[in-house]
Amino acid sequence: MLPKDPVMLLSFVNTQLRDYYSTLEEFCSVYNVQKEEITETLKSIDYQYEEGQNQFV
User: Fold this and answer.
1) Could you report the per-residue pLDDT of 1-57, keeping only the tens digit for each?
2) Which residue of 9, 12, 16, 47 could cross-link 56, Cys pair, CB 3.0 to 4.6 Å?
3) How many CB atoms lie within 10 A of CB 10?
4) CA neighbor of 2 nearest in space, from 23, 31, 37, 35
5) How, if at all, do strands 49-50 and 55-56 pair?
């Protein structure tokens, strides 16, 4: 289960992307979550996914 708090979600997702997944799509597939759900939640705290860095910045 993913964290509900956007700041905790940011930390969790970025750690997972850094350590285990080469793309956001791969992460979303494994966790069975829509990419838009993650990106919109993190956009609410002013973070966007940077594909080249494979993290939210």
Assistant:
1) 899 999 999 999 999 999 999 999 999 999 999 999 999 999 999 999 999 999 999
2) 47
3) 19
4) 31
5) antiparallel
What is d(CA 33, CA 35) in angstroms, rounded to the nearest whole number? 6
Three-state DSSP class for residue 44: coil
Specify the pLDDT at position 1. Answer: 87
The angle at the Cα of 6, spanning 3 to 11, to the nearest 5 degrees, equals 70
Closest to 15 measured CA to CA, from 54, 51, 43: 54
Q: Residue 56 class from Cβ within 10 Å (0-12 exposed, 13-18 middle, 19+ buried)?
A: buried
